[in-house]
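Input:
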Amino acid sequence: NAGVTQTPKFQVLKTGQSMTLQCAQDMNHNSMYWYRQDPGMGLRLIYYSASEGTTDKGEVPNGYNVSRLNKREFSLRLESAAPSQTSVYFCASSEASFGAVGYGYTFGSGTRLTVV
Amino acid sequence: KNQVEQSPQSLIILEGKNCTLQCNYTVSPFSNLRWYKQDTGRGPVSLTIMTFSENTKSNGRYTATLDADTKQSSLHITASQLSDSASYICVVSVAGTASKLTFGTGTRLQVTL
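Output:
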């Protein structure tokens, strides 16, 4: 089925370890996003890529880096994980940037990350 | 500061009953408002998208309303089913070149027998 695929689904890291969250979409969407979801808070934007070859910081970028590998793939890297990065991470894609009228977002199923 | 507030935080209803979820926002300038359904352990799935000029939009048993003057939206669920148990998230888009989505914290709905 067409959509957004995230790997892994679950991960436990020790403080200071690094890891990369993978995201791929097969809908030929131009824009891709990484969000984190924490209890009691709305989804917050970490980084986004409006089009292939561009990336920009979102609301909470500290401690993260991203790579738009090609039009399909957008990865999120934690260089030195901290307990504050324990969260559920969602990748999303859309045809156009940022909530342009008429363009919906498609979200992946999420990666549940625990940093101990 | 752009904010989206939802109420109630949680709600339990019997199967077959109707319910209405509320969303108030202070986002400006407004572009569009979306309602998403998020099942436990899954990503959000879009239910409706409404622009400034639309005041009602339906998707099956889901009907969203928008009052842009009072900056309020509601999501009405008719004849609820067990599969409606989920979180419902209100999302408002800010207009402009640096537009972004502002997410509410969601209403957790549980439908019981």
